[in-house]
Design goal:
Elements (H helix, E strand, L loop, with lengths): L1 E9 L4 H4 L14 H13 L7 E4 L3 H13 L8 E3 L16 H10 L15 H23 L33 E6 L1 H14 L10 H4 L8 E11 L2 E14 L11
Helix pairs in contact: 2-3, 5-6
């Protein structure tokens, strides 16, 4: 068995976030001044964690956030960042660049909820989930290939524990006994789909007392989520033995940093 942690971070604020405009994939805007401050804040928050592998969406708002996190990190400043298209934001088709209220109006006209509605030319939630599943496959293989070196008769890393107590807010929550850590910097709609897949489809264990509404709520800019995975090797590749949610959408690090509405 081999265990590692995955820390998911949403990118910092952009002006489009502040103006409540949809970005998706076709609109690739830089971080705002507030977004840069948020990225610095989450970088300081995570600075003591040694990230062995770092992945970021290849959109500039995610890349810049990941760069700032690494710059602040005590142990991982020299870690190579992998730019991964599978981590890009959900495509919103004709709605990209338009106010979020336009998407709500389009959904209402179609008789659907805004969350489930797919605008013309956009990605369905199932298509986004498929991208995340492909990324997990890549991630699991890479983590095993690079980091699992068990001696004969020994286990490759600690086993994932059962549900933990409510998180205390520390940056290293859930990492006791886990030696290998991966960082992913992605986007709000994508992370929401990812968390839903991990909890509902992969039956992740949950923190004690957590509410489902909290788990699946939209991540704030630079919101942090963490899962711990235990893998084994099967004939067809990595096999997921256990998945544990430590926390989702944490924003303690933001403090007095102004956030987009």
């Amino acid at each position: 068995m081999f265990t590692f942690s995955l820390t998911l971070v949403r990118h910092g604020e952009t002006q489009y976030n502040r103006d409540r405009l949809l970005q998706g994939q076709g609109v690739d805007t830089p971080l705002s001044e507030t977004g840069l401050q948020q990225a610095e804040a989450v970088g300081r928050y995570l600075r003591g964690i040694t990230f062995n592998d770092v992945f970021a969406s290849n959109l500039q708002r995610a890349i810049r956030t990941a760069e700032i996190i690494l710059k602040n990190n005590t142990h991982s400043s020299g870690t190579e960042m992998v730019l991964e298209p599978l981590l890009r934001e959900r495509g919103f088709g004709v709605a990209e660049g338009r106010p979020k209220d336009d998407l709500k109006n389009m959904a209402n006209a179609a008789g659907q909820s805004c969350r489930d509605y797919t605008p013309p030319g956009g990605e369905t939630l199932d298509q986004v989930k498929l991208r995340f599943k492909k990324f997990l496959k890549v991630l699991f293989k890479r983590m095993l290939d690079e980091h699992w070196r068990p001696a004969p008769g020994e286990r490759g890393g600690a086993e994932a524990a059962g549900p933990c107590a409510a998180p205390a807010g520390a940056a290293d929550d859930g990492l006791a006994g886990v030696a290998v850590h991966a960082l992913v910097v992605s986007h709000g709609a994508y992370i929401r789909v990812a968390v839903k897949h991990l909890v509902e489809d992969l039956a992740s264990s949950l923190p004690a007392g957590v509410k489902m509404s909290q788990l699946f709520s939209p991540s704030p800019n630079t919101g942090v989520s963490r899962f711990v995975f235990t893998l084994s090797r099967g004939e067809g590749g990595p096999v997921l033995s256990a998945c544990r949610c430590v926390f989702t959408n944490r924003k303690d690090h933001l403090g007095s940093v102004a956030a987009a509405v």
